[in-house]
């Protein structure tokens, strides 16, 4: 190899090294630029999630206000001359309004009395051995259970026939 060929080979190596360094700087620049863009997107998404959560909570609270007011009116109507039926009616109105509110949020009350016991939705806290009912039928509800979009939130506490 001649000195000229050797020099041109060294020059090519230097050119390639310079091009490689330039390419690496560009990659680093674009990587940093991408990080900034993604960081900004994450911050915007986080802020949006927080805002939506706050708005959903506000919506729930606004829907609770009529229930609170109805309960307040029911309590205010109770006096020494109050009839039991009137009190019961007022409390039942509050209960029905609360169930309606839960349904608005896709929360459903689990069916119990007369239904077949399902351990996925019911918690047996008592057994009925009277023989009056078919086996594995719920005969009494102690606490309501609820599901949200088909998924269990709280099991119903029940008594089941043996």
UniProtKB/TrEMBL annotation:
This protein's record includes keyword Chaperone: yes
A Pfam entry, by short name: GrpE
GO-annotated molecular function: adenyl-nucleotide exchange factor activity; protein homodimerization activity; protein-folding chaperone binding; unfolded protein binding
Organism domain of life: Bacteria
Subcellular location: Cytoplasm
Keywords, ordered alphabetically: Chaperone, Cytoplasm, Stress response
GO CC annotations, alphabetized: cytoplasm
Gene Ontology biological-process annotations: protein folding
InterPro entries given in the database record: GrpE, GrpE_CC, GrpE_head
Subunit (UniProt): Homodimer.
HAMAP family: GrpE (MF_01151)
Function recorded in the entry: Participates actively in the response to hyperosmotic and heat shock by preventing the aggregation of stress-denatured proteins, in association with DnaK and GrpE. It is the nucleotide exchange factor for DnaK and may function as a thermosensor. Unfolded proteins bind initially to DnaJ; upon interaction with the DnaJ-bound protein, DnaK hydrolyzes its bound ATP, resulting in the formation of a stable complex. GrpE releases ADP from DnaK; ATP binding to DnaK triggers the release of the substrate protein, thus completing the reaction cycle.
Family according to the record: Belongs to the GrpE family.
Protein name, UniProt field: Protein GrpE
Annotated organism of origin: Candidatus Falkowbacteria bacterium RIFOXYD2_FULL_34_120
Lineage of origin: Bacteria, Candidatus Falkowiibacteriota
Gene: grpE
